Amino acid sequence: MPTPDYVSPDHIRARFSRAMSAMYRAEVPLYGDLMELVAQVNQETLANQPAMAKALQRSGGLARLDEERHGAIRVGTAEELATLARLFAVMGMTPVGYYDLSPAGVPVHSTAFRAVHEDSLGISPFRVFTSLLRLELINDAGLREMAAGLLAKRQIFTPKALALIAQHEAQGGLTDSEADTFVTQALETFRWHRQATVTQAQYQRLHDQHRLIADVVAFNGPHINHLTPRTLDIDNVQALMPTRAIPPKAVIEGPPRRQLPILLRQTSFKALEEQVAFTDSEPATLGTHTARFGEIEQRGAALTPAGRELYDQLLDKARAGLEGVPAERDPGRYQALLEQAFAAFPDEAQALRRQGLAWFRYTPTAQGLAGDASGKRLDTLIADGDIQCDPLVYEDFLPVSAAGIFQSNLGDEARTEYGSNANRAQFERALGRPVVNEMEVYENTQRRSLLACEAQLGVKLL
Ligand code: OOG
Ligand code: NI
């Protein structure tokens, strides 16, 4: 039997990411404005910094830049999470990493669905930060029961999407037209619902426990709550946002500005207050719900476990320097504390490499390919210009930053305390599979690049 022509999961993901962006742009026009601003600043940055443009070109980052974005959703049950994992698998997206947000007063734990192979990331780096509500952290038994009851009644996937997921699993792929139908049907799960599934009073009860609980429980699906384009100069976009009537949050999350950006810097604009209808609403008494917002991010070098440990330590040091005053209240001071603390983090590619703080992609240069490299060691090959190395881009998230983004959109209500409640095993049981360790993903990419150098230059590097 001839093998049918299936669309590669990478291309289904690329189509889905584009369709998602178009839908969100129509739903939240401010997102479109932000996209335009980001594209403009990216172009200016590339024009003013030819070295950066060249490095991006080499690493494949340039081609994917305009396509690059992440979204975020929150689901309510293990079954919803497990089915989402199957839906994302159709698009070549694997759960990577475990994030516990409970220490930040947010009763969820999360993972990021994304592609893991560098070739797949080159086609579409689309990622979805996916959180599972943890009803077990809510101490009001009556409320827990009400929430569980509402969640048990809803179906967040269309029948056609479910059928196509099963078909993909059974036959090992989707044809072109099946893939198009899949994208349209899968998109329905992430659409905004103006109609709530609860009465005004029920909404209020959920909301009073935690605004996030109302957001997850009171609607018929996990609407995408933000979609984040990647900028090459976040300070510039942050400064220009007010000129487009987009008010940014006061503090950029993550590391300070550096010569060589590391990990991830993010900032967002405040969630919109949107009209919704409760099941007992008269047209004249529509309510509001605040959940959806916008965010931008600048991605830098992926750090090794040693680099990440140093990052966490320096971030803690900067935050301790605030002595309890929220960073948002004195952004200038926080910026100064960050810069002081991160002076201890090397800010040059070769220093990061020699100290084992970041992951790299190694490529033979034209000179290396033309000459005789045999017998040379990696350091010499790099110093002689036979091998070029570029830091791998960080493809994941940061829990402290994520907490900051969650918090800035939960309003100024008193913070709930849940203590630290990491429970990765429970998350993986709900998901139906283990999450991938992101460090292994970067290590594999680095190793593949070294193997390619070995093959092309006839040297031994590993
Ligand atoms: C997710 C917040 C985390 C990020 O970029 O760190 C996040 C949410 O609010 O659901 O998207
Ligand atoms: Ni985000």
UniProtKB/TrEMBL annotation:
EC class (word): oxidoreductase
EC number annotated for this UniProt entry: 1.13.11.93
Domain of life: Bacteria
Keyword field: Dioxygenase, Iron, Oxidoreductase
CDD domains found in the cross-reference section: VOC_YdcJ_like
Cofactor(s) this protein requires: Fe(2+)
Pfam families listed in its UniProt record: HGLS
Annotated family: Belongs to the 2-oxoadipate dioxygenase/decarboxylase family.
Protein name: 2-oxoadipate dioxygenase/decarboxylase
Species for this entry: Pseudomonas quercus
